[in-house]
Design a protein that fits this description.
By secondary structure, this protein is an alpha+beta fold. It has five helices and six strands.
Length: about 220
């Protein structure tokens, strides 16, 4: 029996878990800059994800400010330096524990931040910057694909509602006119209406095929389990 395909969300969270264990941190958090310029928790391991969903961190807060503006790895001396993210840090972490912040960069700008920790204030724990940046780049790619799938999931129903529904109405109205419900129409007008009706039918069929495609793919994956 084949294993079911993992979603980008599952792969991203598995990557975060791997990073946490690799760098021996109690928590690993990937924050991504959203469309409003705020940092949102995209994936995490070691903290409560249900609470993280409501947290928005300004890029100017605490240690995030320099990490993002200067595109450099930073060390937050304690949880309080994490700004609005601080309440998510478990209470059993010591107040002197430090956290490592690594910028996640795209071609032209910082896309987010990886947070690892806590590490003892006396420890020399400091992951290799090149390795951590590469890990962050992977997280960014996975998150970008995840966002695309989320967008498609909302776009397809909207396409169905905004296009197919009015087109079906137009198609039905043309059918009533051609059927003589509003009196006889001239030959030339009838030809034009028939062409319009055929165009509506082709467009509606194309939209139906497009809407059904993701469902067919999902059913195929389910049957392969």
């Amino acid at each position: 029996m084949d294993n079911p395909a993992l979603s980008f969300e599952e792969i991203l969270n598995a990557t975060i878990r791997l990073l946490r264990h690799t760098w021996k941190a109690q928590a690993c958090i990937f924050l991504q800059v959203d469309d409003h310029g705020e940092l949102r928790v995209r994936a995490a391991d070691g903290i409560s994800l249900s609470q993280a969903a409501a947290v928005a961190v300004k890029t100017s807060e605490g240690s995030f400010s320099k990490c993002i503006s200067e595109n450099k790895m930073m060390v937050a001396e304690n949880a309080a330096s994490l700004g609005s993210l601080a309440p998510l840090i478990p209470a059993d972490f010591k107040s002197g524990d430090k956290f490592i912040l690594s910028p996640v960069t795209g071609e032209t700008r910082v896309l987010g931040v990886l947070v690892l920790g806590p590490y003892s204030a006396q420890s020399e724990a400091h992951p290799q910057e090149s390795d951590l940046r590469s890990a962050g780049a992977l997280c960014a790619v996975l998150s970008a694909h995840w966002r695309m799938y989320e967008w498609m999931a909302s776009f397809v129903p909207q396409l169905n509602h905004e296009l197919r529904t009015p087109l079906t109405t137009v198609q039905g109205t043309i059918g009533m006119v051609l059927g003589g419900m509003f009196g006889e129409v001239g030959k030339e007008v009838k030809v034009m209406l028939e062409m319009a009706q055929e165009g509506c039918e082709r467009t509606v069929r194309a939209i139906e095929d497009y809407v059904k495609a993701p469902k067919a793919s999902k059913d195929k994956d389910a049957n392969s389990k």
